[in-house]
Amino acid sequence: MSRRPVRPSRTLPAAEWWAPLLVDLGAVQRGSAERGLCIRNVDLTSGRAQVTVQWPGIPATTLLPDPEAGRDALLQSIAAVGPARLADDEPADSTSSPLVGHGWLLDELGRRSDAWYAYLAEPVELLRVETDGRRTTDVAVGRTSRGDVVEVHVPLAGLGADGMDVGLTYTIVERAVTVAAHDLRPADSVQGRPTFSTGLPGEDPGEDPDRT
C-alpha cells in the first residue's frame, strides 16, 4: 500500500490522474441518460484517457479529453457529437435507467481513487471501464505484480439508489485482488495481458448474450 497515488492528479494531489475525469463523466452520463447518451468505454491503458460515447442511431465516437479540463469543457466536447447535459444533484432512484446507474458508478470510481493505492499491499491499476448500457459495467483491474487483469462485472440495476452502494470501489478492487482462481473465467485480453472475469462477491459473473 502507499500513501500517495501512482500518478497524482495535477489539481487533486491525493487522487489518481483519471479521478476528476470519471467524476465529470458521471455527471454528464447521469444528466444525459434520458437523452440516450451511453459513455460506453473509458480506456486508460495508454496512460491517456480515451472516452467512447454513443447514442441510439449515432455511430460511436472516441474522444481524448483532458482529465482536468473541467466538466463544462467535457460537456462541450460530448455535446458536439450528440445531445448531452449535466446532472442535477438529485440522487438516483430505484426506477432509474441502467445508464443512470452507470453514471453513478463512474462518479464513485472517481471519488474513491484511493482504493487503487492506499488499502492493498498488492499494486493495482484501473485500466478500463466499459458498459453494455443495459445490464452491467465491467471494471478492468490490472494486477501489476501478477502481470494479468481481472474484469469485475458490476450489475447496474438500482445502482446508487439507496445509498448502500457507497464504497463499492473498494469492493471492486478487493474482489479483483482476492478472488479465488475457481471464480475466474477467461476473458478477452486487455493490453496484451492474460485477462479473467468475475462478479462481485455473491454475484454470478455470467455472460450477457446481448452484449455488443
Could you give the topology of this structure?
Blueprint: H1 19-32, E1 38-43, E2 50-55, E3 58-63, H2 71-79, H3 98-111, E4 124-131, E5 136-143, E6 148-155, H4 168-178, E7 185-190, E8 193-199
Helix pairs in contact: 1-3
Mean pLDDT value: 92
SSE pattern, N- to C-terminal: HEEEHHEEEHEE
Strands in their spatial order, largest beta sheet:
3-2-1-4-5-6-8-7
Give me the count of strands.
Answer: 8
Secondary structure tally, helices:
4
Main beta sheet, described?
A: 8 strands, mixed
Using only C-alpha atoms, the radius of gyration works out to: 16 Å
Please, could you describe this protein's structure?
This protein starts with 18 loop residues before the first helix and ends in a 13-residue tail after the last strand. The model is unreliable at 207-212 (pLDDT under 50). α1 (19-32) runs antiparallel to α3. An 8-stranded mixed beta sheet has the order 3-2-1-4-5-6-8-7. β4 (124-131) and β5 (136-143) form a beta hairpin. The chain has 4 helices and 8 strands; from the N terminus they run αβββααβββαββ. It is 23% helix and 26% strand. By secondary structure, it is α+β, with helices and mostly antiparallel strands.
